[in-house]
Specification:
- With 50 residues, the protein is an all-alpha fold.
- The longest helix is centred in the middle third of the chain and has 40 residues.
- It starts with 6 loop residues before the first helix and ends with a helix.
- 0% of the residues are buried.
- It comes from Methylorubrum thiocyanatum.
- It is a single-pass membrane protein.
- One of its GO terms (cellular component) is plasma membrane.
Amino acid sequence: MDFGPYTAFIAGSYGFAALVLGGLIVNGWWDGRAQRRALAELQDERGGRP
């Protein structure tokens, strides 16, 4: 597949999109862990599940 003179732009765009999506995935994973930790602390304070 030949993209002609736009090859660098297309490859850079895909690379940037992959970087952004990877960052969103890592951020979601990191935030999920923090939320689970906070929930566990709140449940411990209340004495377990309701």
